[in-house]
Amino acid sequence: MSMPSAMPGALVGRGAAPATRELTMAQAIREALAEEMRRDPRVFIIGEDVAEAGTPFKVLSGLVDEFGRDRVIDTPISEAGFTGIGVGAAMTGMRPVVDIMFGDFIALVMDQVANQAAKVHYMSGGKLKVPMVVRTTMGATRRSAAQHSQSLHAWASHIPGLKVVLPSTPYDAKGLLKTAIRDDNPVVFFEDKLMYQLKGPVPEEEYTIPFGVADIKREGTDITIVATSSMVQVVLAAADALAGEGISVEVIDPRTTVPLDKETLIQSARKTTRTIVVDEGYERYGVTAEIASVIAEGAFYDLEAPVKRMGAMDVPIPFSPVLEDLTVPTAESVAAMARTLCGRG
Amino acid sequence: MARRTASREAQHDRLSSIPADQWIRMYRQMLTIRVFEEQVNELYTSAKMPGLAHLYIGEEAVAVGVCAALRRDDYITSTHRGHGHCLAKGAALDRMFAELLGKEAGYCRGKGGSMHIADPEAGNLGANAIVAGSTGIATGAALSAKMRKTDQVAVCFFGEGALGQGILYEVLNMASLWKLPVIYVCEDNLYNEYTPRTETTAGAMQARAEAFGIPAAEVDGQDVRAVHASALEAAKRARRGEGPTLIICHTYRFRGHHVGDVNRSYYRTKEEEQQWMAGRDPLQLLAQWLIGQKMATAGLFERFDQEIRAEVTGALEFALNAPYPDPSEVDQHVYA
After folding, report:
1. For the complex shown, is ipTM > 0.90?
2. Distance set, CA B88 to CA B23, B80, B162, B187, B212 (Å)
3. Which residues fall within 8 angstroms of residue A1, CB to CB, at 6 or more apart?
């Protein structure tokens, strides 16, 4: 993936601005947070280096100036502790947005997320709720090595009680984050670190995007490629290349793995009869496995070929660029798989 | 931060204004917990209760002394050994039994069971089956109270086994930094499950809080008056915005780790158990004091015993006859 290298600017101005602007993913996320914090005094941000630092990715820059340190709370380096504090605050009338800097650190908060937040509503017979968003990151090829590069959204997707969001455009990121903040359940929101500078159109006016509604990023007739988050741009690039070869690709982004829009995935697979599922999580026991299974069951009699999966290689993410680039699907590898599936390999 | 080992005199000053009927009420609450737990044990031995339960017998003075210092809208979080906390914060016997039996009338519609009873109407944010698992929740409830500018207090009950969990220290640090209205109540019953505390816990327990600038009080957890005095002070401190307190209550689990833990000789002696039960029973200690103060007579306690046993029996009867949840409940309440 190639991304613009410029740092995100200040919030895009209001007033005389056109109805739709180009925002980076980082700007879209920041705007969603600012709007929701203005709308609802119960919303607050808690995490490491979220205030003046605005996180290492500068996604939150400027929010502390508007909302103050009481609502943009810098914490010690204690992920489990402040996530637990988020759960307790959410159970008692607040709507925290917990910032987990790197998705790999999800390992540090799993008890609070999987055993506490996800189960409180059920265990209490519906009496308690945890309206909390955990924002975290994913994505390799940033030369950050094995403990700062993983895409662990399959872990969260495995646990009943959690909702899991994987935006792939600035537009989706803003609309989905606003929905996440308004949701009464714990939502884990994975942002691809490498897409923070990706630009895209974002309307000025208020909008939200419902969970469980897949988006057809490109219509096509020969093959369906389901892609999540970081892999959407990769697959769109592959689709462009394949179009020149006469292969028409339909690209579908589920946008949320929980809830999952099974119907749209199955309908597309039935139409094109061939499907690849591409996701940056580890391939083994991962999101690609679940989605492939949904499609294989739902579209079985219409399929011309087995549903193929492409995920991250089942190795710890290596540091050396030469090695790291081998671990994730690329436009070239996806296109090659599509050709094979379409009998053009 | 100086250690606060309250002198008997200072304690007496704080308690002298408390009228006799409050102590009597606390006695009745402790007795209610005792009789409830005895009944739970019987449900287990007669195979009427699914799963296990962790009995609070012997530790009643902690829950009762602390909860009597709280308002109804104050929060508590509880533990796997949580029946006492729930009852002391205001839970009803019948719905408690119903939950333990997996019935729809239970506090969690039968979906939580013994280790997960939550009663938000009474400020109980739930018992927790992960040791130290609720320390974040209680601290977060305190942050929430502070942000919402209520003067609610959150109490986090945990056993001394939780001193082994890292998250406790993370939240102690943040509670102190942010002066959160939270009271950490450590119930030191001497055993982490089946392992003596001395084998698991280095250094001084109170020093753990003091390292974070949190005052630590050590009290006799069998003396409900001492516990109550400490909790009153901690609650006052929390409501004044002065931050958290740790109260270490030295107590004893009269029964096993859970109802099935009958053979305990490999980790503690019968003599030790006898000594605590004969000389350090929180109910007896309070009764003796009340009689000594001429606030009550022996006859009164006999009457309480009869009344409470009848209440517990009635509540159990309700729960035994209550219906189980409908199978359609199984996938309800996964999401709000």
Report:
1. yes
2. 13, 15, 21, 15, 29
3. A141, A194, A195, A230, A233, A234
The neighbour count for residue A314, using CB atoms within 10 Å, is 11
Are A125 and B166 in contact (CB < 8 Å)? no
What is the CA B324 to chain-centroid distance, rounded? 28
Is A148 an active-site residue? yes
Non-local CB neighbours of B218 within 8 Å, separated by 6+ positions: B3, B5, B205, B206, B248, B250
| Burial class, B5, CB count within 10 angstroms (exposed 0-12 / middle 13-18 / buried 19+) | exposed
CA B332, CA B336: separation in Å to the nearest integer?
9
Q: Model pTM?
A: 0.95
Report the distance separating Cα B245 and Cα B232, nearest Å: 11
Tell me the chain A residues in contact with residue B126 when contact means C-beta distances shorter than 8 Å: 120, 123-124, 128
Q: Pull the structure tokens for residue A292.
A: 């492939």
Q: How many CA atoms lie within 13 A of B88 on its CB side?
A: 32
CB A276 within 8 A of CB A223: yes
Residue A16 has pLDDT above 90, yes or no: no
Closest CA to B91 of B14, B173, B29: B29
| A79 labelled catalytic | yes
Nearest CA-CA partner of B316 in B36, B30, B32, B127:
B36
From the CB of residue A145, how many other CB atoms can be counted at a distance below 10 Å?
Answer: 15
Among B7, B22, B96, smallest CA distance to B56 is for B96
As a whole number of angstroms, the distance between CA B321 and CA B192 comes to 36
Cβ atoms within 10 Å, residue A144? 17
Q: How many C-beta neighbours within 10 Å does residue A82 have?
A: 31
In angstroms, rounded to a whole number, what is the distance separating the alpha carbons of residues A297 and A261?
14
Taking the C-alpha atoms of residue B181 and residue B204, their distance in angstroms, rounded to an integer, is 24
**Token digits of residue A14:** 């209001």
CA distance A207 to A187: 19
Q: Is the dihedral of CA A270, A276, A280, A283 positive or negative?
A: positive
**CA distance to partner chain B, nearest, from residue A91 (Å):** 7
> Catalytic: which of A36, A48, A79, A191?
A79
What token pair was written down for A334? 């996806």
Give the length of chain B: 336
pLDDT tens digits, residue range B18-68?
Answer: 999 999 999 999 999 999 999 999 999 999 999 999 999 999 999 999 999
Cis peptide before A259 (omega within 30 of 0): yes
**A58-70, pLDDT tens digit by residue?**
999 999 999 999 9
Of all residues in chain B, the one with the smallest CA distance to A78 is B170
